[in-house]
Each structure stands twice: as C-alpha cells, then as structure tokens.
Amino acid sequence: MESPWKSDSSASHPYPGVSLGAAAPRAERNQEALEVMRRALRVRHYALRTEESYLHWVGRFLNWLAWGGADLEAAGEVEVRAFLEELAVGRGVAAATQNQAFSALLFFFGEVVKRPLGKVDALRAKRTTRLPVVLSREEVRRLLGGLEGTMSLIGRLLYGTGMRMMEAIRLRVKDVDFDRHQVIVREGKGSKDRVVMLPETLREPLREHLERVRILFNEDRAAGLPGVWLPGAYGVKDPKAGERWEWQWVFPSKSVGKDPRSEVRRRHHVHDNGVGKALSVAVRRAGIAKKITAHTLRHSFATHLLEGGADIRTVQELLGHSDVSTTMIYTHVLRRPGVGVRSPLDG
Q1: Residue 16 has pLDDT above 70, yes or no
Q2: Is 119 a catalytic residue?
Q3: 189 is an active site residue
Q4: 76: region left, alpha or beta (phi > 0 left; psi from -120 to 50 alpha)
Q5: Which residue from 280, 253, 268, 269 is spatially nearest to 155, judged by alpha carbons?
Q6: What backbone torsions phi and psi does residue 12 show, to the nearest 5 degrees?
Q7: What CATH code is assigned to 137-335?
Q8: Regarding predicted confidence, which is higher, 177 or 86?
Q9: Of residues 164, 172, 267, 304, which has the active-site annotation?
C-alpha cells in the first residue's frame, strides 16, 4: 500500500462524483468523498488555494486511515487526534500547518461526512508568536533596485501600499483610481474590500505599464481568446464582462493557460511563484542576509508608517486587519526592548 505521507494524487485530479454504495471499494468511496467535498467548498465560495489545501489534507488523512487498516465509516475524534499528533510529533510540521490540516478535517467531517467532530478544540496547535522580519529603508531601496520590469512594479506596489502578494497580482484595471490616488483591494483576507493609497511615484510607471497591457488585451480580443476569470456570479450575470478592459488583470501572465476549475484556456494573472523567484534573485543581488518573502515588504510598509508617526488605527485599516491587536505586533518591533541599553561588553 502507498505510504500515507506521499502526495495524494486525488487532491489535484477531478473525480467522477457518481453515487457509490457501501460495498464499493474503499478507494472509490474515498474518491467520491473527496469529490463531494470539492463541490461543498465551491458552493461556499472557498478560494482555489484553500480548496486544494483542504483536499490535500483530507486525502492524506484517508490514506493514513487505509495505511492503518481503518475505515472512514468508523473514524472520528480518536482518529483525527492520532493523525494530528502524527503530523506534529512524527512529521514535525509547523503549528500553522497542523491547524490547516485540522480545519480541513473539521470541514470534512461536518459538511461531507455529516458527523461533526465534538470537543476537539484542544487539537488546535498553539502558534508561536514571532516578530516579523522588517527591512530598513536602505535595505528596501537595495531590494527594489534588484527587481526588473513588471516584477519591479509589483515589488514597489507591495511596499508602497502594504498589499499582500495575492492581492497585488489579482488587481484589476478598474480598481486602480488614478484621479483619487487610490487602489481598491477586492476580497482581501476574510473576503473584505479596503482602500489603500496609490503612491505618487507609481502613477506614471503604472500608466505606462497599463498601456502595454492594453496592447496585449487587444491582441487577445482579436484572437478570440475567452475573457479573464470573473469572481462570484459575474460570469453568469454578465458573461462578456471578462472581455472588457476594466476587468483585465493589471499584471497579466505572458502566456495563456488552462483555468484550473473550468479548464477554459484564457489569460490569467502572473503566478506568485514568479514573484517569489524574482524577489529571491533581488535579495541575493542586494546582499541582504535576512529571510525575505513578499510579505516582508508588507511588514516593512507597516513598520515604516508607524516610525513616521502614522496612527495605529490607520495602519490597521490599510493592512485590512480585523483586530488592532494583530497590527500591534509592529509596535513591538518599534520598541526594540534592550536596544537602548548599553551592553556591559562595551564598558
């Protein structure tokens, strides 16, 4: 039997979705359960990444059950606890990863198996509170200087607005308001919209970038390419909206690809992996010895605003935090306890 710790192929392939009886082979019943879960996630408008992640962890759990000779029909809190303990102790996964697997199983048992797990809050791992990695203004300058082309524009937008990487690469033309000097972030974390500033230094570079994007847009229309993906029910209400300029991605991909859900070939936005790789190259060029991701620019944005005297509530709104306590982590960075005390070694 395949090891339960290998990547579960069923989490990335479509399933038949036919009704199978109890006598059907275990693999087929597991496959049906995953397909039912996929449909349940889509009905509730879960993000594609969440869908893929949840299916991955439930697939791993089902493989783990089969590996131990157990069956889903008899599985419950005991099995879930044992699986999560194996992840934490046997596999040494991070608390965030363990909690992600836990959330997937909560959804699976509650919405698919229809046997909600009982008192299992104790299974949620306590996350370690870590101070964010923050760059100095000079390090930001060097890092952004190592980026080129579209990636340079994305990097400056991340630092200049505090947007998350996925919020930036999913930006649409209609949400950039040059006249009001603002950008509307649609469906950020928690499915909330918010408004952030459009940095003055980005206005002209962004206008020039969109002129080039419009050329690509016109070529796609001339070639009869389907419009861009539309959120929610827009594709049903207004099927042609995806072919209109205002709905286009600000940062479209250079190549056409297959939509992971509809399998329609269309132009998507740039991939986050591309942004991550460009940042890694820029970090090496800048000679910065810190663990840096796209989120580091967001951390630096918040810290530098607070250093400049910005109000904590304003920074909270710009970041899209639902609770100011989340934003307060940056005040700990600012306080730098002990830094103002002279070391005895220097005496």
Answers
A1: no
A2: no
A3: yes
A4: beta
A5: 280
A6: -125, 15
A7: 1.10.443.10
A8: 177
A9: 164
φ, ψ for residue 25, nearest 5 deg: -55, 150
Q: Assign 273 a pLDDT band (cuts: 50, 70, 90).
A: very high
The helix (H) or strand (E) run that includes residue 105 is helix 95-107
Active site residue 45: no
Which one of 41-55, 64-78, 121-135, 160-174 scores highest in mean pLDDT?
160-174
Which of 124, 142, 174, 189 is catalytic? The answer is: 189
Q: Looking at 39, 295, 332, 335, which residue is catalytic?
A: 295
pTM for this model (two decimals): 0.77
Annotation marks residue 332 as catalytic: no
54 is catalytic: no
Exposed, middle or buried: residue 154 (CB in 10 Å: 0-12, 13-18, 19+)? buried
CA distances, 200 to each of 51, 149, 315 (Å): 38, 18, 18
Is the C-alpha dihedral spanning 27, 31, 32, 34 positive or negative?
A: positive
Per-domain residue ranges for the chain? 9-123, 137-335
- CA proximity to 160, closest of 324, 304, 275, 307: 304
pLDDT at residue 206 in the model: 97
* Structure confidence by residue, pLDDT tens digits, 217-247: 999 999 999 999 988 767 778 878 999 999 9
For the chain, how are helix, strand and coil distributed in percent, rounded to 5? 55, 5, 35
Q: Is the pLDDT of residue 256 over 70?
A: yes
Of the residues 15, 54, 159, 330, only one is catalytic, namely 330
Q: Is the pLDDT of residue 121 over 50?
A: yes
Catalytic residue among 56, 267, 269, 321: 321
Would you call 321 a catalytic residue per the annotation? yes
Homologous superfamily of 9-123: Tyrosine recombinase, N-terminal domain (1.10.150.130)
**pLDDT value for 330:** 86
DSSP symbols for 149-190: HHHHHHHHHHHHH---HHHHHT-BGGGEETTTTEEEE-S-TT
Rounded Cα gap, residues 270 and 249, in angstroms: 9
The residue from 172, 298, 299, 304 that is catalytic is 298
